[in-house]
Amino acid sequence: MGADLFEARPDRLVDVSDRVLGWSLRQACLDGPEEELTATEHAQPALYALAYQLWMELSERVGYPPVAAAGHSLGEYTALAAAGAFSFETGLGLVDRRARAMADAVARVDSGMAALLGVSDDVARRVAADRRREGGRLWVANLNAPGQVVAAGALEDIGWLVGNARDLGIRRAIELDVAGAFHTPLMEPARSQLVTALARVGIHPLDFPVWANVTGRPMASGEVKELLSRQITAPVRFGETLRGMADAGIEAFVHVGPGDVTAGLARRAVRGSRVLVVSSIKEVEEVAGRLGRS
Predict the structure, then answer these.
(1) Whole-angstrom Cα distance, residue 90 to residue 20?
(2) Rounded to the nearest 10 degrees, what angle do helices 40-62 and 281-292 cross at?
(3) Are 3-106+185-292 and 111-175 equal in CATH topology?
(4) CATH numeric code, 111-175
(5) How far apart (Å, rounded) are the C-alpha atoms in residues 146 and 144?
(6) Helix or strand or coil: residue 202?
(7) pTM of the predicted structure, to 2 decimals
(8) Angle (deg, nearest 10), helices 75-82 and 224-231
(9) Beta strands at 69-70 and 148-154: parallel, antiparallel or unpaired
(10) Which of 72, 183, 229, 255 is catalytic?
(11) For the chain, which ranges sit under pLDDT 50?
(12) Amino acid 294: pLDDT
């Protein structure tokens, strides 16, 4: 993952990252093994670092700032670093602390997540609330786009949800290959650790608005620490964020980072919007050219 970036920008990716993390980001991304890279404590810093460097490549070529930015869960840290809330190095340190804290929280309880297809946000919330009233541990974790919700909770509750989806008014529920129930109260132990890490960080005024996962609205500089700490246990309201950005006049969305998941969510949440993907240096050149003609 990110081989082109490591070749093009070893100074940015290798020197800083290895010093902050205390392990080789390059080795984890390029040499694996896969189970090492996909572990929460390695995957989060890797995704943050690669997404930020792609952002740097793109911003240097485009030459003008975005109207606004947003990120899905971990991506919010990349968006905030891009907007100047904190440096790449500071953000990487926060992400590293967040990832290790979440891994510790995951180890305390067997938990997971499931994608719910063909269900409204309200029905998903009702199903989760009903299950909790019966003694279960199940919450809505991601409100991604119309008809696409992610629930999270204890493994027994995820199994129940998948097995009874049709009867619950859900077209299909698919258990996800993730480490645990992120963005739920089961992550509360991680939140307390993140609060301590955030207390040591200074937040600078934002160069452009960043929309928050927790509220689905732009955040003020003074809210950043609180919203980042709340984000770890609160649902990601990404569909609402995308629709709010569109209502504010944004017509083009650029996914920056490995993969293209948020691009798909933008296409689904904001029909007819212009959606571009930057997941490699080659795509940086292509997208910069297209943005330059817009």
Answers:
(1) 9
(2) 40
(3) no
(4) 3.30.70.250
(5) 7
(6) coil
(7) 0.94
(8) 160
(9) unpaired
(10) 183
(11) 294
(12) 46
Q: What pLDDT is attached to residue 1?
A: 66
Helix (H, G, I), strand (E, B) or coil at 113: strand
3-state SS, residue 120: coil
Buried b (16+ CB within 10 A) or exposed e, 203-240: beebeebbbbbbbbbbbeeebbbebbbbbbbbbbbbbb
Domain boundaries, the chain: 3-106+185-292, 111-175
Three-state SS string across 54-95, please?
A: HHHHHHHHHCCCCCCEECCCCHHHHHHHHCCCCCHHHHHHHH
Q: How far apart are CA 223 and CA 200, in angstroms?
A: 15
Q: Is 183 a catalytic residue?
A: yes
| SS3 assignment, position 49 | helix
Domain 3-106+185-292 has CATH 3.40.366.10: yes
DSSP state of 171: S
